[in-house]
Amino acid sequence: MDAISYLTGLAVLLIVGIIGSIIARKLRVSSILLYVLLGVLIANLGLKQFDIFLFPNEFMIALSLLTLAMIVFDGSSRFTLQELDKKSTRAMELVLAFIMMNIILLGPLTMMLVLDWSLRGVLLALVFAVVMAGTDPGSVFVMLGETKHKVLDFLRLEAILNTPIVVIIPFLLLDIIRGVATLSVASTFSDLLVPFLQQVIVGVGTGMLVGILVFRLMRKHYSKQLSPVVVMATVLLTFAVAESLSGNGVIGVATLGLLFGNSYVKRKGQLVEFSTILSTSLEILVFMLLGMLVMIDFTMGFFIKSLVLFGVAVLARYLAILISLRQSEFNMREKVFMAFNMPKGIAVAVVTLTFAVMDVHLNGLLTLMILFVVYSLVLGSVADKFGKFFIKKEIVAEPDETPPVPTNQPAKSKK
User: Fold this and answer.
1) Domain locations in the chain?
2) Which of 172, 252, 255, 283 is most buried (CB neighbours < 10 A)?
3) Hey, what CATH topology would domain 59-390 get?
């Protein structure tokens, strides 16, 4: 297969995705959900057998890692120490509580229904529990348009904070899973402690070093054409250098993003907007390729298990909200709305796609992850469709006309 075929396949996917996005806007549904479903249709209608859709694993891995690096940088760069207020603290508490409740409730049930109770099964269940704590409510907020509300702002803040976490931890666990294959159960954790610490230290050090060198130069110099390219090149360089030094590239990029968000860089707003646009442009390919991995051949038993597990995940989120927001200004309706709004976005999709193309044997978790993406988008869309019922108190339209003159006061005569 030649390069022209690859380019043709990418062009077709992008065109189909753009058409799907237009249709989604017309129908006021999640475009991400439509991307996944279009990918599922391509795979299950036999279209995947055409050469233009047969992408090599190397290309898929490169695309996944590029998207992964940009997503982590975009998420971590939006977290500034100056904005570390009470709302951010509560959002972080919700992120950590959701992860813990997933580990406690969703993890054991996943081992019982899908995996096993071996050490590898435990680690895979941890990966699944952490990844499923990721949220991206912006992917389904199309139902509410440009509505402003404290609940929506809080959910967006939660998504910014949980993105780096749900990406970094699974890849650290992946390295441990790979080590389990060559180590005994008794020696696994002790023998992997040093490599684990090495990955963290090298990743943080690489991100700090590259960031200090590059962002120092960008304090005074800005080019509308070159500066965005420099940022993207810096992100990719940090990831590559950290990985080549036996560090963790995701941690390196997250550190770089934190440094970028908390440093003075000329025209930072335009650069952040560029990274967001680039990340969004990769959405279509990632979600459609993710959908193409789904072959609808699972049994009714597996389908029922997936719904049971998803129901437990919704319960875990509701309990996490009750625990972390027990002394907050949110009422019960708003908390229920937040519990239903747990759509899986680009971060979860990238992790799932990367694990798939890297030939990580997930023992049936791959299809389950993709089904969770679909379930969460559907549930979030339904919740947002009835959003005015849950959060109607602050959804008030701005008056278009000035108040009428009271009848007990004479109107001023026009001169």
Assistant:
1) 59-390
2) 252
3) Na+/H+ antiporter like fold (1.20.1530)
